[in-house]
Amino acid sequence: GCIVKLYHTTNIQVLDAILQEGINPSKSQGKRPLIWLHTKSKIYWAILHVQKKRKVSLDEVVIIEVTISKKHLKRAWKGIWTSPLLVGPTRFMRVLRADSFGDSPVPESEK
Fold first, then answer.
1. CA nearest neighbour of 83 among 39, 13, 24, 1
2. What's the pTM value of the predicted model, to 2 decimals?
């Protein structure tokens, strides 16, 4: 299938485990064992979501850029995707710090 670039936003406390094991759906704290991924346009939304849900500050939020086959994804809503599959560390392109986005204005479309 078509390979796409998406992002997984999480808190820095779990980053070491993710870098070793991958993004594991069984570690999800949601109702179902799924991993959550988003498009670049949803980065600001995802940072705020993680901050609120995990009660962490901006400097404790990280964004992992991944590649994944589109056939393994299910669209949750616009720009947000889920997958029941583990995304291994070999699929990670880079890790970004959320506070590097902190001084960027939120795009109008995200407000």
1. 24
2. 0.88
